[in-house]
Amino acid sequence: MDEILLKCAVVDDSNLQRLSIVKLIMDHPNLKVVAQYNNAIETKNGLLDTEVDLIFLDIEMPILSGFDLLDDLPNKPQIIFVTGKTKYAFKAFDYDAVDYIHKPVNKERFNNAVAKAINLYQLKTNGVPVEDENFIFVKSNLKNRKVFLSKLKYIEALGDYVKFVTEKDTFVVLATMKSFEQQLPSDKFLRIHKSYIVNLEKVERYNSKNIEIDKQQLPLSRHKKANLIEALSSM
To answer: Any idea which UniProt keywords this protein has (predicted)?
Structure first.
């Protein structure tokens, strides 16, 4: 499969907010900034000569709002609304928005919205979804690396580092377990020990002291056994 690269435009009348989105786009391996605009009129004119797959669009702007802009665009790319107000959320989806992000934007929320856009792009171009919509990005060797959650077996704490063990390989990143415990979906992943978070779908067997994933035994904290039983029974 060819690497997906969505051409993006950022529209926001706040220079600070616009640059924060641009930075997130530049850090994402599947996105490329091709245009920045500070109002809807400038955007409408600029898009006449610029091909764009995805627009990160503010709503409240001088003269014309983000909604006004979309009403005037004959060919609409994918839209992710980025706004400081929650009151427009219902209306936003009347415009077939991919997502609606509330400012200030954090990286996890941004990446989740982008994942939806990538999946829709793949559906439109190839008629099939991407390999797995659910993934996270981790920084390894100064690069952002995509980790598909369905391929992740477990992560292990190693001092100031975290080791990722996937179906294909193993790598280490500078991070904390707590940061990934908050990112990973709680219905799919469980912290079974102070040093281990496991993919519940990969658990093959367990007893009062250990669980087994792909013939490898990992320690199970005594007070986590009830949580494990409950989590596995609800899958």
So the answer is: Phosphoprotein
* Rounded distance between C-alpha atoms, residue 182 and residue 189, angstroms: 10
pLDDT above 70 coverage of the chain, percent: 94
- For residue 126, the model assigns a pLDDT of 67
Which of helix, strand or coil describes residue 194?
coil
* 3-class DSSP assignment, residue 103: coil
* Dist. CA 54–CA 9, nearest whole Å: 6
Using one digit for the tens of pLDDT, what is the confidence trace for 77-121? Answer: 999 999 988 888 878 877 888 889 989 999 988 998 998 898 888
pLDDT at 132: 47
135-234 homologous superfamily: LytTr DNA-binding domain (2.40.50.1020)
The DSSP element (H or E) to which 101 belongs, if any, is strand 99-102
Q: Is the dihedral of CA 169, 165, 149, 212 positive or negative?
A: positive
Cα distance between residue 69 and residue 106, in whole Å: 25
Helix, strand, coil content of the chain in percent (nearest 5): 35, 30, 35
205 Cα distance to chain centroid:
31
Interval 68-77 mean pLDDT? 89
- Start-end ranges of CATH 3.40.50.2300 in the chain? 6-126
8 A C-beta contact, residue 116 and residue 123: no
